[in-house]
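Budget justification aside, the reviewers requested a transparent look at the raw inputs and outputs of the sequence design task funded under Objective 1. We therefore reproduce one unedited record. The lines immediately below are the structure tokens for a 215-residue chain.
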């Protein structure tokens, strides 16, 4: 017979509803709730299972436009955030990216682009796990860059300054709620490259900026 009074969960992968994986008590499968009519199974009243420390996630569509940055008109307003990212899969049909951004890390899955829209599923992961994935499982070389954020016309622009084999490349991105959403271009925004696959980070692995012909 299970001793429900002293039962604790010691493993994070327990499938029993209520298991937390951190040693907290959970409702025993054999526990009964007693009412006026006698003992009845209490399983139907269990709350939805939820793991403690469940990572944040973002799921939906990414609508993004990219522009080259006129370095004569733009200067960074701070140090930015260092990004180190790699790809478990860089095929355009199903991109799987691992990224460390400052003191955080994320796993992102993207579908194929349709215009400037693509499916995106993003999950926070431990930085230590991300570092292991980048060093041991991701395609090489990695993408190294600093990201700067600026507000213009009420919208956030993300400006990526690339390093290593992509030194000299500076690209600005803006995320939109719809492909036809109107927005104001900053003075430093140059040619739009949203539909040019050369500027996809996943393609910069195989065809880095330093190998491009002049112009």
């Amino acid at each position: 017979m299970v001793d429900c009074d002293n039962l604790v969960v010691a493993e994070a992968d327990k499938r029993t509803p209520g298991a937390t994986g951190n040693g907290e008590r959970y409702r025993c499968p054999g526990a009964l709730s007693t009412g006026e009519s006698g003992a009845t199974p209490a399983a139907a009243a269990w709350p939805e299972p939820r793991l403690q420390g469940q990572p944040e996630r973002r799921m939906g569509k990414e609508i993004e436009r990219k522009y080259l940055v006129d370095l004569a008109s733009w200067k960074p307003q701070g140090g930015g955030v260092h990004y180190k990212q790699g790809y478990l899969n860089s095929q355009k049909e199903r991109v799987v990216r691992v990224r460390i951004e400052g003191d955080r890390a994320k796993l992102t899955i993207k579908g194929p682009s349709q215009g400037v829209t693509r499916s995106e599923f993003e999950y926070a992961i431990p930085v230590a796990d991300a570092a292991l994935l980048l060093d041991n499982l991701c395609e090489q070389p990695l993408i190294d860059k600093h990201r700067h954020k600026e507000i213009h016309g009420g919208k956030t622009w993300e400006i990526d300054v690339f390093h290593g084999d992509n030194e000299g490349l500076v690209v600005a991105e803006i995320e939109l709620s719809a492909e036809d959403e109107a927005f104001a271009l900053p003075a430093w925004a140059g040619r739009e490259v949203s539909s040019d696959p050369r500027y996809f980070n996943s393609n910069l692995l195989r065809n880095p900026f330093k190998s491009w012909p002049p112009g």
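The radius of gyration is 24 Å. Confidence is low (pLDDT under 50) at residues 1-55. Computational costs for records of this kind are itemized in the attached budget.
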